[in-house]
Amino acid sequence: MTNVHFIGMQPMGGPCEAMCRAADLLLINQRPAVMDMSLPSKLTTYLPAGRPVLAAVNDASETAREIRASGAGWVVPPGDPHALADVIMSLADRVHELDEAGRAGARYAKDHLSRDVSLREIEAILAA
């Protein structure tokens, strides 16, 4: 593939958010042994960007559950580069599906992962 570019780590904020919004597909790639250490912070950056997510993660992980719950993208087994490549290649001509997954992720982030939602949930827990 000649249209794939890998770049180094980017600082959070403006450039990183703009880069996520410009992507056709965003990748989360975890080791097969990773199960539920936590939700990767990049997912909470990716979803509001409104772009689809491909996650090479353990099928039973919290990351996989969030991708499915949000409708933001696809989950493939970690450590399987052929499965990853197959999904990427299958999505090449499915622009509408990619765009809808991105919109679904942005809606999910707004409804479930935003600062205001999180604060309301913490307040409810503390009040109980």
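That was protein one. Protein two is written in the same sequence-then-structure order:
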Amino acid sequence: MTILTKLSSSLNRRDEVPNRELAKGIATAKDKKAVQELVENLSSKNKDIQNDCIKVLYEIGTLNPALIAPFAADFVALLDSKNNRLQWGAMTALHTIAQENPKIIYNALAKIIAVADQGSVITNDHCVGILLKLCRVKAYEKDAFSLLIERLMIAPTNQLPMYAEQVLPIIQASNKVLFIKTLSARLGDIEKDTKRKRVEKVIAKLNKS
């Protein structure tokens, strides 16, 4: 029996609970056949099925990234989709597997950045997440960090404090000064006191280290 019958849309459900439960079951069973079926149906003529499949896939990626890592190229291709749900869903999936299949994702960074520049807040959040994971891969660390700094320079002030806090754990002596300089340059852009104080706290922690 096809697993498509277990998708939220197939069950006439408007919530995501069935999709999350399906993802958990597939991840636990390490069901590669089910993953393959989900990937194949990303091109379904039924948009609801497309949307459910990408949801299940990135939920699987969160639980067991190795299961969906072989399909990195498929997710990269979806970044060009006119279906916004597929586009940011693909970015989410790539985020979950960035350390499982870093080479393909690194080679697709130009597209990932271009999509983030035109995309939603969610798309940008996952783009930053991808860069953070690539910063932990020695071969891609330098380039990924340079791109991360560029994202921080143009990040909306609502997102900047969160990004600064996420970047903090990967900062080393070699890039600390640049990170501090970048955040300091953005302080004047932040109108909300609570947001600015969060960034100032990150800077203060670095200055003490």
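The two ends are 57 Å apart (CA to CA). Keep this in mind for the problem set.
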